[in-house]
Design brief:
- The complex is a heterodimer.
- Chain A is about 0% helix and about 55% strand.
- By secondary structure, chain A is mostly beta strands.
- Chain B contains no helices and eleven strands.
- Classes of the chains: A mainly beta, B mainly beta.
Chain lengths: ~110, ~110
Amino acid sequence: DQQVKQNSPSLSVQEGRISILNCDYTNSMFDYFLWYKKYPAEGPTFLISISSIKDKNEDGRFTVFLNKSAKHLSLHIVPSQPGDSAVYFCAASAGSGGYQKVTFGIGTKLQVIP
Amino acid sequence: EADIYQTPRYLVIGTGKKITLECSQTMGHDKMYWYQQDPGMELHLIHYSYGVNSTEKGDLSSESTVSRIRTEHFPLTLESARPSHTSQYLCASREGWNQPQHFGDGTRLSIL
């Protein structure tokens, strides 16, 4: 039972255009959401996060949007660059103290075409 | 850049061998994690630690064991490797709750 779902296994975008990666979750207790980027033969690298008290967080070319009512998260990359080509993982966690579990999606492979 | 290191990066070894995958971080993080990931699948937590002498099993059943004798070191051991253990193993650490995890580059393990 996947609690964090990334339904698009891959996405191709032209350089300079917007990339939109989507993520849906089922657990209403999730209150902290993250996006990681992963290049081949490397570990995931943290990209951006958002708390459930916000609906938008921006960092340079990267913006994460959170729609709690729809249990939907998206990552926007504008403008997309060839170096953004990687696998993007959505992750979510619930609670604080004790054990705060982080649940990951299966990833979306983004290809930015020059 | 995060300072968390995993060795070896790749390991091909025969069935029945004892294996230790190393993970070290220089950030002083108390919280450390081991994940297992197969191609096209999500990361599954197999072990975690809140600090020295603290270890817990994660969600995915694993025949591996871990130890945490020093803050910076969190090795994972397979006493007798089997082909079913073939996978990628990722180590991570983080400073606190609602903080991102920093990952090592992983160990890709193949058991023949």
